[in-house]
Write a structure and sequence with these properties.
With about 270 residues, the chain is α+β, with helices and mostly antiparallel strands. It has two domains: about 150 residues, no CATH class; about 70 residues, no CATH class. It has nine helices and four strands; from the N terminus they run ααααααβαββαβα. The protein has a four-stranded antiparallel β-sheet, covered by helices on one side. It is globular, with a radius of gyration of 21 Å. The N terminus is likely disordered.
Length: about 270
């Protein structure tokens, strides 16, 4: 016999809080990628790495793709948790909207990014070409890290009249809509040509295999780096993009990987 969890089960609030935190964390990553990587183009993930295996352009493009893929995984986990708590979130008067935990997750993402990426490893700074990068790092840390975290912490258990079912549905709908919007903007960058594709080849892979895989298409080369490891091309059918992984590609924008930060490469090379 299938057991049905009652709507007032005490584990449901924890699940709803966890979902809100995960979605806020993912939104922090999407916000960073959309604003700093795509629109302003102040940095990408490994901007400060200039030597070694990760210093190559192909590795940096692939790293940006991995970064966005991880954010999609976190967002998916949050959406799954929200779906599993949907009954209590929309019907139980004991469940309050957990915006506080969303903002905690958003702030935690920026704090982790500042500590790990800006100051401990130094793989990038907020504004790479700034005369004093630390000023930008600290301002971003406070405005988008500490302020949302403290606001979320103060409001996470704020007592207010229990919401109606409509209020719970509105809360869940806004979370889902916001995260999906962030995900779509990472899949289809605002500053990228929708018809261009960035291809990063694996070390040692030959461009010849890539061109052979595209022989029966109208694909054209827009730009390539001097090592022949990163290519910007147009008119590649979606089905062919997937086949490029078998022809030496380790990253292909707009396939199984989000286009994300590759927008900085496309706009800079195709202009």
């Amino acid at each position: 016999m299938k057991l049905v969890r009652p709507p007032d089960d005490p584990t449901v609030p924890h699940r709803l809080r966890r979902a809100s935190f995960l979605l806020g964390f993912a939104m922090g990553g999407f916000f960073d990628g959309i604003l700093l990587h795509q629109i302003l183009q102040w940095h990408h993930l490994l901007s400060n790495v200039q030597a070694g295996p990760l210093g190559s352009l192909s590795a940096q493009v692939a790293a940006d793709g991995v970064f966005h893929a991880i954010m999609y995984i976190v967002a998916a986990a949050g959406l799954i948790e929200l779906y599993r708590a949907r009954s209590a979130a929309t019907t139980s008067p004991a469940i309050r909207p957990r915006w506080g935990h969303f903002w905690i997750g958003f702030g935690v993402w920026h704090i982790i990014d500042a500590l790990l990426s800006h100051w401990i490893t130094g793989i990038h700074r907020i504004k790479m070409d700034a005369d004093n990068p630390l000023v930008w790092d600290l301002a971003w840390f406070v405005v988008f890290g500490l302020v949302p975290l403290l606001y979320g912490w103060r409001t996470r258990n704020h007592r207010r009249p229990p919401p109606t079912g409509r209020a719970g549905k509105t809360f869940a709908s806004m979370l889902v809509a916001g995260v999906l919007a962030g995900g779509v903007l990472n899949l289809f960058p605002l500053r990228a040509d929708a018809d261009t594709t960035v291809i990063a080849l694996r070390p040692g892979a030959s461009p010849g295999a890539m061109f052979q895989a595209l022989a029966d298409t109208d694909a054209r080369v827009v730009w390539a780096d001097s090592q022949g490891s990163v290519w910007v091309m147009t008119a590649i059918p979606t089905a062919k993009k997937l086949r490029l992984f078998a022809s030496g590609a380790m990253y292909v924008s707009g396939s199984v990987a989000p286009a994300g930060c590759s927008a900085w490469l496309k706009s800079g090379t195709a202009s």
